[in-house]
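Async update (no meeting this week)

Hi team, since we skipped the sync, here's where things stand on the single-chain job. The sequence we agreed to prioritize is pasted below, unchanged from the tracker. I ran it this morning and attached the output directly underneath so nobody has to dig for it. Comments welcome in thread, and please keep replies under the output.
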Amino acid sequence: MLFYFSTTQDQSFSSIKANVHTGPLALLLPAIQGITFSLILIISLNLGLSQVAQAKVQVEALSDSQNEQLTVTYFSEGQQHTIQGKQTAQGYRFNERSNKVINLASLNWPPYISEELCNKGWVFQFAVAVLVSKGYQVNIHFYPWARSVMLVEQGKMDILFPEYFIESSAPSDAVPGKKRSELLVLSNKFSGGELSLLKRLGYPFDLQENLRNLKGKIIGVVRGYQNTPEFDAMMDSKQFAVIEAVDELQLVKLLVAKRVDLIIGDPKVFTYSVNYSNLSNRNKQALLNNIEIVQPALKYNHLYFAISNKYQQWSQLLDDVNLALLEFQQSGETDRFIKVGSGCTLDF
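Output:
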């Protein structure tokens, strides 16, 4: 009989392995007396070693996730404020004593925001600071973007972020017969990034005025993203073929594999999505060495918080968010968050 004991203390992980061939489980107890921290017992009777190892890794990941502690710091009126957060079944929670509960839906979109970034990225920290500064309890949930959009448009989540500007003509993909602007209310803007087309290295394509030479191309887009009014209008009228991807990493793979002619998005996000992936360093470099930005950029896109108008106090929430954005902009806090970024250095 093979027993695995996995223990956690002070957010570190260690394991104790014991092979037991005879005697009851009680014989093991003296060997583990004095252990005062949490004990997880995995009993393997017939599992192969590879299955046991896999189970052990899953337990370790779960333990680390449940114990993850997050800290966000911001300055207001010359005072430093530090908010401790934690991961829960309801997302990443901050200011839990407040009864003004807000649920936000987001996506993994490095370098702006991602569960894979330490400190979750500057937009994550910025959103926490903006809302906590106005007394809200913050719960941030990560989903694929299309699902985040759907949940907020349906009123199952309160805020969608970071969002691009929503054109008045943009239809909802979640609520048939509705425009997105009928379901979501945008905050004031804050800093974002460029939106560009990318092509394979050496692919003979130069962007022409009015995007007219996009006609007939096969272009990769992330499902649920808004781009520019001109691009989206051409896409909706099927002037070029579209292949939808779940994220930017999948788009880069489609481009390098010659499944599409072009892809569209924020170049910084493409770079970070590749670098923060689980690919080998060799494959990461192969992808990044085979793509290039089409000049000029299509647009600079500011970012917004999009509030569901199904949230009962949406008007007050909008006023609070806009006031906090103004205060952060005037005090230099917005620039500080951007400059500090995730607060971490890359380790690849």
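Quick observations from my side:
The first strand starts at residue 2 and ends at 9.
The two ends are 41 Å apart (CA to CA).
Reply here if anything looks off.
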